[in-house]
């Protein structure tokens, strides 16, 4: 496979490490990137709001991945439409759902109000979950589930608020509104007992089996609200956490089996994820595309998705980066609507999942 060529606009200086996404620190990491297709001056816009996932965070304050999931989605759109596509990523690494809603989606609504906007997408709640997980993992004595319940409640509130606000404010020409749900970073790392003890059983609890139902409820609500508010839902959990072949012999590909099903109740979905198909869930550090081949979807921080290609400068302590390049792949390289690396990196898989809902024409 021919190596990708990147054209980055800004020069890179040093990089500073962000200590922990799960902490209270946040940093703005925006990108404006144009897929510049030869032979056309027509340009449509995709707007993506979110935290470090859409930001393309890779451990640096000053630069981020060019080809995060939102950019990958825009590259697919350019291929479908035969036009330039401008991807506006308005992101705040480390931000909880309320912060993304208030300070990105609401405060920066103008980006989705331009008349050439065709796609608006967002993701949130990951940091609500990470902060609650860190709190719980650090507890001793009697386990306090309050922070986990608060994270779920806040996620529920702001998912709905975001969809309602986008519906009211996105350009009338917008053809796709889509939310991305959560994969489970650190899935294997959480497979151990807590330091605290459950008040009812008097026993320590397994962190993974404690956290997974909360994540499942967040994901069900994201996709269920999407149906209610006229959005689509890209199921990152299924695409990251399930193998792309039938490991348990139940007649369905594991990643398909884990997907949200419209009309299924929340309790039924949670049971399917935490019990019925629990054995098919695999840490995304080893995403099996077949029985003998796996790819690492998670960076060494055990949190953020892997990506292909280069990075773009966004400022020494965060800010906005701007750049452009020809399409990532030529039309002849796509097979069945997938680019050659669609399942080899976390961000590529996310971008492909988002792109499956792209309108065929702008």
Give a structural overview.
There is one protein chain. The protein is an alpha/beta fold and 362 residues long. It has one domain (27-355): 3-Layer(aba) Sandwich (Rossmann fold). Helices cover 32% and strands 19% of the residues. The protein has a 7-stranded mixed beta sheet with strand order 9-6-5-2-4-1-13, with helices on both faces. A two-stranded antiparallel ribbon has the order 3-12. It is globular and about 70 Å long. The two termini are 30 Å apart. The model is unreliable at 1-23 (pLDDT under 50).
Strand order of the largest sheet: 9-6-5-2-4-1-13
CATH architecture: 3-Layer(aba) Sandwich
Number of strands: 13
Query: How much is the average pLDDT?
Result: 93
The CATH superfamily title: SGNH hydrolase
Give a short account of the largest sheet: 7 strands, mixed
What is the SS-derived class? alpha/beta
What count of structural domains? 1
Which regions have little confidence, pLDDT < 50, spanning 5+ residues? 1-23
Task: List the total number of helices.
Answer: 10
């Amino acid at each position: 496979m021919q190596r990708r060529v990147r054209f980055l606009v800004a020069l890179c200086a040093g990089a500073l490490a962000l200590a922990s996404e799960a902490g209270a620190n946040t940093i703005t990491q925006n990108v404006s990137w144009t897929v510049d297709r030869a032979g056309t001056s027509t340009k449509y816009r995709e707007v993506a709001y979110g935290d470090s996932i859409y930001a393309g965070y890779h451990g640096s304050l000053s630069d981020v991945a060019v080809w995060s999931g939102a950019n990958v989605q825009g590259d697919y759109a350019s291929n479908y439409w035969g036009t330039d596509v401008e991807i506006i990523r308005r992101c705040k690494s480390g931000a909880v759902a309320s912060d993304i809603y208030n300070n990105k989606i609401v405060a920066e609504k103008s980006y989705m109000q331009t008349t050439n906007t065709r796609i608006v997408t967002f993701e949130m709640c990951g940091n609500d979950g990470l902060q609650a997980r860190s709190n719980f993992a650090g507890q001793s004595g009697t386990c306090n589930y309050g922070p986990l319940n608060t994270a779920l409640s806040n996620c529920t509130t702001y998912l709905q608020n975001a969809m309602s606000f986008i519906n009211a404010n996105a350009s009338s020409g917008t053809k796709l509104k889509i939310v991305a749900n959560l994969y489970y970073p650190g899935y294997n790392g959480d497979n151990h007992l807590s330091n605290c003890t459950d008040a009812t059983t008097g026993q320590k609890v397994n962190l993974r089996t404690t956290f997974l139902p909360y994540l499942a409820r967040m994901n069900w609500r994201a996709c269920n609200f999407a149906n209610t508010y006229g959005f689509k839902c890209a199921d990152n959990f299924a695409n990251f956490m399930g193998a792309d072949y039938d490991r348990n012999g139940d007649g369905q590909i594991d990643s398909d089996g884990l997907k949200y099903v419209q009309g299924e109740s929340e309790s039924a979905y949670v049971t399917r994820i935490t019990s019925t198909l629990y054995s098919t869930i695999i840490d995304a550090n080893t995403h099996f595309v077949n029985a003998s081949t796996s790819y690492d979807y998670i960076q060494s921080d055990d949190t953020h998705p892997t990506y292909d290609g280069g990075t773009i400068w966004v400022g020494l302590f965060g800010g906005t980066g701007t750049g452009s390049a020809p399409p990532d792949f030529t039309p002849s390289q796509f097979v069945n609507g997938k680019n050659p690396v669609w399942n080899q990196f976390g961000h590529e898989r996310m971008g492909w999942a988002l792109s499956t809902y792209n309108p065929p024409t702008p």
